Structure formats: structure tokens, C-alpha cells
């Protein structure tokens, strides 16, 4: 990738993210503006540079120069697009939200010159059945803490990688960063809040459909006692409750979507996760936390520079001082 071409593309992408609200609304879904305003990226040169630096860090750890890369759960596709701009040969960004997929394709067309080696693709990348050993790199950002089967996810990433390929994982649900726990657990409780928490409401509808003869009190008790159960487990738990007065089966995790088993935000211990990498045939490496360079007003930049100094020398320190964990796994079998 020519440095001049990459610089032109970055400049045009920066211009796209610096447009007025009215211009953004004319081109993108409303939640594109909401999401990136929340992240303080829209019309914020420092935060845009932070995004560019972070994506370059991912590109570097993926060893993606001249390589084929798959992004699982790419969202609007900005990070994947940047990996393509920095020099990957081909990047496929998968996402289950059609509007997000359309945004990714639009951004690739709008940058100057257009990024023709980037593909924004609708669907669950894990279920798309790409041929084995299709990619040199696979990346997953803020995805793995939501998936139903972490083990299956990692095994599929291994299958998709070529020998020696790299799986790059980043997730903000690092269980060892203690300050984030209260916020995360408030979110869990909100999903089961009575009477209108989304998981509570879904389970009540499921039970009401399968057991229409329950009284309102019986229904409420059944919904409470089957928290965390998924699919057929919910029905089995209600039958057990009606027959024995109790539900013996215990949910692995008390806050899951009863319809499909997705996690809202599961806490992940980085060292436990590294063991899961090894079980899936991926040799793990704990990476240092990312801290942007030369974009903050001092003394914030001094603090980041200090944290970077120590975390780059002792990556394990990162998981105690920063909410985002990052692990790289190389395919060994």
C-alpha cells in the first residue's frame, strides 16, 4: 500500500467523520451519529486520531500487511476498513445488522480513492461456512463477551485461520478491572428488571405461550425461578416447578437472553480466556493496553505515556489498570 494513497484515504475518512449532524443524517442511520457521538469521535480530531492509532495497533498485531483478514462482528466496519487502508490485501467485515453492513460498504466507496479490497458482508461470520484456512488473520472487537458458545467461537476462528495465522481479540469486559464491575452489573440487573426488563419480558411471553393455564401469580413465580435459562430449558424448568415446587436446574449465568442464549456482557478473566485459547489450538499472548500517543492535553497525555511505559514492559499489568483486555492467539495446529 502506497503511503500516499493511505494518507489520502485517511484524510478523506477524517473529513467524513467531521461533517455536520445534518450531513451525517443524510448519509447514515441515526444510530451511527448517536454511537460515534457517544464515543466522542464525531468532529473531534483527537478522538479520530485515537481511532486511527488503535486500528493501526490492531493491524500491526495481526501482522496484516499484504494478508487476508476477517472481522467477526465488525459493527459499522470502521476498524476493519482502517486495517484495509493500512495495507491488508483483503478485509472481509461481517455483521448481523444490515444497516451497519450498508454503512461499512458506503464508507469504503466514499473514501478517496475507494477501498476496493474491503467487503462489508451481512451475516454471522462464524456461521457463514467460509472454507477452512481462508484467512491469515481473524479479529473480534467487543464481540466475544456476548457469544453463546465461547469455545465454539474460538474453534471456528482456528478453522478459518491458515497455519501460523493470528486471532486478535479485544473486549472491554475485563473482569480484573474492578472499577467497571458496578456499571456492568447494573446493566445485567436492568435486563431482568420487573416488570419491563427485556429478558424478564421475553421469558414471561415464552412461558405464557407454552403454559396458558397459569394464574398471574404462578406465571410471575415461574418467570422469576427460571432466570438465566435458555430456550427449552425454560419450559423444562417450569414443568419441574409445577411438578415438584422447585427448579433444580441452575443457570450457568443468571442474565442471558432466554430466546437465543446471548450474553448481555459477560465478564471475562483474561487468564482463564488464555486457557480457552490453548484448548482451541491458539497459542495466546497477552497484549499491552492501548494508549494513544500525542493527542491529549497534558497532564492526561503524561498519565497515558506513563501507563504505556509500564504496560508495554509488563503486559499483565494492563488487565488491572485498564478495562479493555487484548489477546493475540497464533494457530499452532
According to CATH, the homologous superfamily of the largest domain is Vaccinia Virus protein VP39
Distance between the termini: 31 Å
Strand order of the largest sheet: 3-2-1-4-5-7-6
Multimeric state: single chain
CATH architecture of the largest domain: 3-Layer(aba) Sandwich
One letter per element, helices H and strands E, the order comes to: HHHHEHEHEEHEHHHHHEHHE
* Number of domain modules: 2
Q: Tell me about the largest β-sheet.
A: 7 strands, mixed
- Rg estimate, integer Å: 22 Å
Record field, number of beta strands:
7
Instruction: Supply the CATH class of the largest domain.
Output: Alpha Beta
CATH topology of the largest domain: Rossmann fold
Structural class: alpha/beta
- Residue share in helices? 40-55%
Briefly say what this structure is.
Helix content is 47%, strand content 14%. With 333 residues, the chain is α/β, with parallel strands linked by helices.
Detailed description of the structure:
With 333 residues, this protein is α/β, with parallel strands linked by helices. The protein has two domains: 48-175 and 267-331, Rossmann fold (3-Layer(aba) Sandwich); 180-244, no CATH class. It has helices spanning 3-16, 21-27, 30-38, 45-61, 78-86, 98-110, 150-160, 181-191, 198-210, 216-225, 232-244, 270-279, 300-313, 318-321, and strands at residues 68-72, 90-95, 118-122, 135-141, 161-171, 282-286, 325-331. A seven-stranded mixed β-sheet has the order 3-2-1-4-5-7-6, sandwiched between helices. β4, α7 and β5 form a beta-alpha-beta unit. It is globular, with a radius of gyration of 22 Å. The model has no long low-confidence stretch (mean pLDDT 95).
